[in-house]
Design brief:
Length: 497
């Protein structure tokens, strides 16, 4: 006999039918839900009814003000029961007798579920998950193609939570926050459908809508409590929209989620997000650019800033190519000496390649001169005025904004000229001095290309060789203020005007 639970046929079309719980009949004004499933095919109707049932159960619980039974627990029950059946908990899968065993077990579960709910035809979700698992197992044994019902598929929100937990140790808290915002927006846009059902058309629709958002959409503290529709009403079409660079960040997060789920066989087929990633042509983009000599002289011209870090942190970056976070996190213990050569021991890097040693440039002798000799004092930050901030407690958190304000006060308003531009300046100096790329990579903390040097000589250059590379970073015509001029480390030649 065909399974017609939750089904009703009118003329030639199948309808979903569900009895409204007695406690909700007054609120809904009806005793029964009847909705068209849009098909005349019984098997298709039997498949679609579960989505309808899950949707209405969610609505019922929302009306009651309760949370629905944990969907993840229901899904895990289904998967566990299916695997146990495959592993033989019902006995050896041989002959008709095994079919009877499956059928008897299903019947027992139905009776158990009906006793638990005390309603004919109604079974609690956990018991029902076991029944469906055994039914799908029986279908597998008959050689039929079985597609897991949507109610047992991992939703976008469920997948996102597990994915973020899995990569928690690999990303910063700031990155996690960005990923959480991306997944929350996408799940809301898609009504938290099963991740496996997301298509390339879905991805395109989401990214097209998101691209119209103002770049400031995420700055309000109320953003987390707003739906995608609310954010769209507030920010879509207001301003220039999001850049491709920003969209690539969202695409990277969603693509990573899909790949993680695919490795666990929760989804299949082509990654729906990959084709939307667009490489940025740095020469034609509005990315970061080096400061000009005029910019640098304006930044380091008198009067001195009230806070010396606005000169000192940039100078370290300018003469080493270090990232802002790397400079700000330095303690005096990170300034060490080997074979008479002072160097920075960089451990707080964003990648494995970023963990490196960089000789102190001759232009930074003033920094070495301040280094304390006491063992206790060596553990102190070089710039204690830089207080930790942001989700990761980074000492660079407040420096980013402070330097932006200082830069603009010196007349440098180009959006492409930011703190990261100092790193661009250092790399520009190295290339124009004809420094081989693998040697420059050791200084600025990039992965070496190819395996020859990266694999067969992991120790890289000697400290003396590294110092020679660093000395190639020079800015003829740069006027440094009193107290920050060259010559205190290694007898470097001054380039002050």
């Amino acid at each position: 006999m065909a399974d017609l639970r939750y089904l009703k046929k009118r003329r030639q079309t199948w309808y979903f039918r569900l009895t409204v719980p007695p406690d909700l009949r007054d609120k809904l004004g009806k005793t029964e839900i009847v909705e068209s499933l849009g098909t005349r095919d019984l098997s298709l109707a039997q498949s679609r009814r579960w989505d309808w049932r899950a949707t209405w159960e969610d609505r019922f619980d929302a009306l009651r003000g309760n949370e629905r039974q944990d969907r993840a627990a229901i899904r895990e029950t289904y998967k566990r029961t299916l695997q146990e059946a495959r592993d033989g908990f019902l006995g050896k899968p041989e002959g008709d007798e095994h079919e009877f065993t499956i059928g008897d077990t299903i019947s027992a579960l139905v009776e158990q579920g009906e006793r638990k709910t005390k309603q004919d035809g109604e079974v609690d979700p956990i018991t029902e998950a076991k029944i469906h698992a055994l039914q799908d197992y029986a279908a597998e044994r008959r050689g039929e193609t079985v597609k897991t019902k949507a109610v047992y598929a991992m939703t976008i929100n469920e997948a996102a939570k597990r994915y973020l937990d899995a990569i928690a140790k690999e990303i910063t808290l700031q990155t996690r926050g960005q990923y959480e915002a991306t997944f929350r927006l996408f799940a809301d846009f898609m009504d938290d459908k099963p991740l496996r059902d997301v298509t390339r058309r879905d991805a395109a629709a989401f990214l097209e809508e998101l691209a119209r958002f103002s770049p400031t959409w995420g700055r309000s503290p109320k953003t987390k409590d707003r739906s995608f529709a609310d954010l769209k009403a507030l920010y879509a079409g207001k301003g220039e929209g999001l850049s491709q660079r920003t969209l690539n960040r969202y695409i990277t997060a969603l693509s990573g989620l899909w790949k993680w789920a695919r490795d666990r066989e929760e989804v299949g087929g082509e990654n729906p997000f990959d084709r939307f990633f667009k490489a940025i042509n740095e020469k034609n983009s509005s990315g970061y650019v080096p400061f000009s000599l005029g910019d640098l002289n304006a930044l380091f011209a008198l009067p001195a800033p009230t806070n010396p870090v606005l000169w000192e942190v940039p100078l370290v970056a300018l003469f080493t190519g270090m990232r802002l976070g790397e400079v700000c996190s330095l303690t005096w213990e990170n300034v060490q000496q080997e074979d008479g050569i002072w160097f920075f021991d960089i451990t707080a890097a964003k990648s494995v390649a970023g963990i490196r040693v960089v000789p102190v440039h001759d232009a930074l002798g003033w920094l070495v001169a301040r280094r304390p000799t006491s063992g206790a004092d060596l553990a102190n930050p070089i710039w204690p005025v830089l207080k930790p901030g942001g989700p990761d407690g980074k000492r660079s958190w407040y420096m980013t904004k402070a330097f932006g304000t200082f830069r603009r006060s010196r007349g440098i308003t180009d959006k492409g000229k930011v703190f990261h531009s100092f790193r661009k300046n250092a790399v520009q100096c190295l290339e124009r001095a004809r420094v081989p790329q693998n040697e420059a990579a050791e200084i600025v903390g990039h992965e070496k290309e190819g395996i020859t040097y990266r694999v067969y000589n992991p120790d890289g250059l000697t400290m003396a060789q590294r110092r020679e590379v660093v000395r190639k970073i020079a800015y003829p015509g740069l006027v440094l203020p009193e107290g920050y001029r060259w010559g205190a480390v290694g007898g470097g030649q001054s380039n002050a005007a």
